[in-house]
Fold this protein.
Amino acid sequence: AQSVAQPEDQVNVAEGNPLTVKCTYSVSGNPYLFWYVQYPNRGLQFLLKYITGDNLVKGSYGFEAEFNKSQTSFHLKKPSALVSDSALYFCAVRGSRAAGNKLTFGGGTRVLVKP
Amino acid sequence: DAGVIQSPRHEVTEMGQEVTLRCKPISGHNSLFWYRQTMMRGLELLIYFNNNVPIDDSGMPEDRFSAKMPNASFSTLKIQPSEPRDSAVYFCASSLKRTTTQETQYFGPGTRLLVL
């Protein structure tokens, strides 16, 4: 079975400071990893994904994520947070040996960026 | 591209009534997913289709829930009869499934359902 853990329910950060949202996973085979963001009353928006290759993945809105196979982590980062980055962030995973193309999502981390 | 389209955006109904949620996936996509989001349980996959065929419905909570995909451009999620605990935001997502690549799922805006 595949699973995702987002250990922090909420992350608070001051505007201009670096932002990190943590994610760890468990899958069979090679992992395919995704980050989504959800703004209030909106659907989930795709930010970035890791399939293979460079461990540092760059995505939308200045976000990036680092894949660490030994630590089974895929933390989301942004060097300088904006107030507009305040939202709910979801990490998701699919194992290469999983049947179909079913994603498993983490519980979400709420990010609050204060001015 | 219009993205994934869901209707209605909001639905308020009384317990026992039938509720039908609709989804139009992104043109050309061949996989469709229905999710439910609540504060208590987070984001749950209910069912997904590949090429209009249901692949995994293990997340469908009860027989009161049913989903269909009569063609590549339309899907419905029906709840009959509805109960207050069905109140949630229901999302539809679609993706293009290829043999070996991992496709991104794109989400619709959701339907906010309130069952009184």
Observations:
- Chain A touches chain B through 22 residues (CB under 8 Å).
